[in-house]
Amino acid sequence: MTRTNAIGRLRRIELLAVQLKQESHCTIKDLAAQHQVSARTIQRDLDLMREQGMQIDADRGRGGGVRLDGNWGVGRLNLGYAEAIDLLISIAVAEQMDSPMFLANLASVRRQLVASFSKDKRQRVESLKSRILIGVTASTYVQAGFVSPPERIVRALHQAFVDLEMLDITYQREDGQPSQRRIEPHFLLLKYPVWYVLAHDHLRDEPRSFRCDRILSAARAGTRFRLAAKDDFQNCFQDGGHLK
To answer: Which residues form the HTH deoR-type domain (predicted)?
Structure first.
């Protein structure tokens, strides 16, 4: 087995352990489809998990399910790099919002996550954190029209933001009409609960702000851009907002 395949299998086993712990009924067929491997591969994974001491119960008969004993605790949390970055950034947002609830242990969690990164990756995380800004709470008028953006939009925007990559979007204007734009997502701004992307708009050739919940479609353009200064976007808001 190559090193890449071994790492992929270890990651799959970790995900299987969490899945079998959380879900009351899983079949080998369903697990194979979800993880895009054969049923025989899933069966070998389950055998290895049993050898490691995990109590995995299986129902007899055709279509029988498998589950992890409810009294067995899933072990250490093993995050991938992208997952750890997302968690660190979420912690940074919570800390910037100065909420007194549930913050007691966040500093400790952040230190442990940061310590797991190499020096160059720590610098990259710090750069990403500096590009996430907190503003004042959105007005009641804005909140009344807010809807959570679809996951596909969030994923495309997230990846373009992290990779400094241009994004082609269909944007719903204030008058309700769609508009095609190519944007450079330089910063993200949270005016709770509404997220905005502060971007260079190639259509207007100037910095603009876009409400994320008004982005109707998003596709990465495959072209990188150079990060601009935060001060370039100070004029994007004229409604009493501020950037930290």
So the answer is: 9-67
The predicted model gives 95-121 an average pLDDT of 70
Structure tokens at 145: 């029209």
Rounded (10°) CA dihedral 153, 159, 161, 163: -160
Parallel, antiparallel, or unpaired: how do β-strands 194-201 and 206-211 relate?
antiparallel
**What pTM value is reported for the model?**
0.64
Q: Which sequence spans correspond to the domains of the chain?
A: 3-68, 81-130, 140-236
Query: Residues 178, 137, 129, 87: is their CA dihedral positive or negative?
Result: negative
Digit-coded pLDDT (tens) for 160-200: 999 999 999 999 988 889 999 999 999 999 998 899 999 99
In the structure, what pLDDT confidence band is assigned to residue 78 with cuts at 50, 70 and 90? low
The per-residue pLDDT for range 84-100, each reduced to its tens digit, is 777 777 777 777 776 65
Token duo for residue 110: 């952040």
The domain 3-68 is placed in CATH, from the list 1.10.10.10, 3.30.360.10, 3.40.228.10, 1.10.40.50, at 1.10.10.10
Q: How many other CB atoms are found less than 10 A from the CB of residue 114?
A: 14
